[in-house]
Amino acid sequence: MDVAGKVVVVTGGASGIGRALVYRFADEGAKGIVVADLDQEGATDVATDLDNAIAVGCDVGDPAHADVLISAAEQSFGPVDLFCANAGVAVGVDLASPADWDLALNVNVRAHIAAAQRLIPGWLERKNGYFLATASAAGIASQIGSAPYAVTKHAAVAFAEWLSITYGAKGVGVSCLCPMGVNTPLLNDGLGGEDGLGFRVVTAAAPVLEPDDVADAVIDGLADETFLILPHPEVLEFLQRKASDYDRWLAGMRRLQARVEEPPRPRD
């Protein structure tokens, strides 16, 4: 997947990883970019910086968003070549509430399904198209502190796997982006913020990257059509440890949780 000359849709494009992807795709010569976000004003600010972008305000938790976004892209630029299901939420502490579960499932999983349902028929007909799912390292190594985040990110990885298995030999490319900590509102404000267990676990496990670092990894991953795009190389090591000895991995995760739950020692 060479982004040059392609029509791209990016959800969650007003900030964080999505914003970095939009600018990087523009630099790579994308033909047209749809910047989609719940934050209409933020999406507009990003799109107006570019000559080849439009902004669409939408809630990806609404299944109708997929037709709205893809129709807007088709009318402005032509058929969608690359869809980046990037919007996500980090909600729910511990077992969380039903409302947290509904929001996490709708945004982190069902939005991907709705987009694929709208796109796949046309991609199969043209024998060309690419789906980039932003999941998380939590989709591979779980998320201490939040059941909704851990479960829905696992589901996002699983859905991307299924798309690749089912349509990968029929002209549809699929990649799944699984970073750890990235300096975005999702990390800094989600899962209880900087005082939350999730934030402390993520920042203790690996360096926090900038969104531009993740965008670089995405461009490389798309060029190679790599399924798992891992801006943090540590995630591959976590996956290998998990696969080689599941019980030992679970015990290690419990130890990590206990360590980050300890109150900070007072300074002298």
UniProtKB/TrEMBL annotation:
Note the Pfam families from the entry.
adh_short (PF00106)
Q: Tell me which domain of life the UniProt entry assigns to the organism this sequence originates from.
A: Bacteria
Signal among keywords: no
Matching PANTHER family, A to Z? 3-OXOACYL-(ACYL-CARRIER-PROTEIN) REDUCTASE (AFU_ORTHOLOGUE AFUA_6G11210), SHORT-CHAIN DEHYDROGENASE_REDUCTASE FAMILY PROTEIN
Alphabetical list of PROSITE patterns matching this protein: ADH_SHORT
Signal peptide boundaries: none
Q: Which CDD domains match?
A: SDR_c
Recite the UniProt keywords alphabetically. Oxidoreductase
Recorded family membership: Belongs to the short-chain dehydrogenases/reductases (SDR) family.
Organism of this sequence = Solirubrobacter ginsenosidimutans
Q: Which InterPro entries match?
A: NAD(P)-bd_dom_sf, Sc_DH/Rdtase_CS, SDR_fam
Q: Which residues form a coiled coil?
A: none
Q: SUPFAM superfamilies this protein is in?
A: NAD(P)-binding Rossmann-fold domains (SSF51735)
What is the name of the protein in this document? Answer: SDR family oxidoreductase
Q: Which GO terms describe its molecular function?
A: oxidoreductase activity
* Record bears the keyword Oxidoreductase: yes
